[in-house]
# Entry
Amino acid sequence: MEQSAPHRWSTADLAGPTLIFIGSFLVAVTIALPTLLVGNFREIPLSTDFTTVATAEDATILDRCSLATPAARTLDADLVRQQRVVAVQPSDEHRVTLQAGTSVQAETLRIDDRAVEPEDPRPGSGADADSPDACNDATVNAVKDRVTLDRETAEPQLSARGASEIQYDSNQAPVLVPDRRGFTYLLPFDTRLTDHEFFDVVTRTTVPLKYDGDTEVVGKDVARFRAEVPETDLARAALGRPVGTDVVITRPASWFGIDGPRRDLTATLRHRSSWDLAVEPRTGTIVDAKITVDEFYAFPDGTPGVPPDFRLPHLQATFSYDDTTQSQMSRLASDLATPITIWGRIVPIVTGVLGVAALVVGALLINPAWMPARFRRSGGGGTAGTDG
# Structure
């Protein structure tokens, strides 16, 4: 009895199952990419590090040198607000700690319509710029803020190892803010176009962040949000602000420009501000900002001999991101959005189309009967012979 030879699979026989396998794999990739991989791109990066610069022209500041003169003096100034935000430890796959250093510096000062360099000694200081008594510091104010955020929601995450602390004076310990809520330096990916909350570092209060429509910055569609920080007494006991930040001034009434009997008066520093933020909603990046600050010294209500509307300016300025910052933050938003677009939209479309195509072709190769007649392989050999 003759034994039949084993059947061997030809390349044509294997083509169909192979395409079915490849097609199934590509369809699985199409489904998995947006849900598994892309989700990791929608979190605050652990490599976060950006710097913003905002300028204010024709601002008004209190000349700290005049604390040693017979009368308070305010100056016209051009100011620069610089802020660097960088990710630091502790940070992990779920949380990131951001450290933000913010300073306001005087670029130019004007005294009696005369421009002076901020580093030059002013009346009320030592005559020599190198003297310990020289009053020639260009810094108007500075603050360092550390806060741990949830990488997905961008909300403060203060449980476990997370913390929020703000340092207003390098010679004083930071102030802890255990009840911090709201956004400050960035918003979450896929920011909802609704109202949110904003945390103000100066007053340590949370205020509404209201959605204010859409606009365009550097050719990019953005959402506008606005926050209003109401007048706040920075010397109030509940604030716990460190000693040494000049939130209280005690001087003779004449120093404040108030007529009457010789006496000392004590004024406290008040702060109010407004924030207009342009946010790229896909990434939560703030690509433009306008910050209006109004700080002034005022007396408690009912202080005898003091006009109820008395205000001694400390810092009055409107800061706006410069063109370079707008461009840099716009590029940062694009860099954060690009992986999401590639892996969440372009690649799934390509793999989906290729996967479906591979499944269809594989199915047709396995069952040629599904093919149109003209594409089927001929089932017979040659033509039938004739008798005779």
Remarks:
- The longest helix spans residues 323-366.
- Confidence is low (pLDDT under 50) at residues 378-388.
- The CA atoms of residues 287 and 329 lie 5 Å apart.
- The radius of gyration is 34 Å.
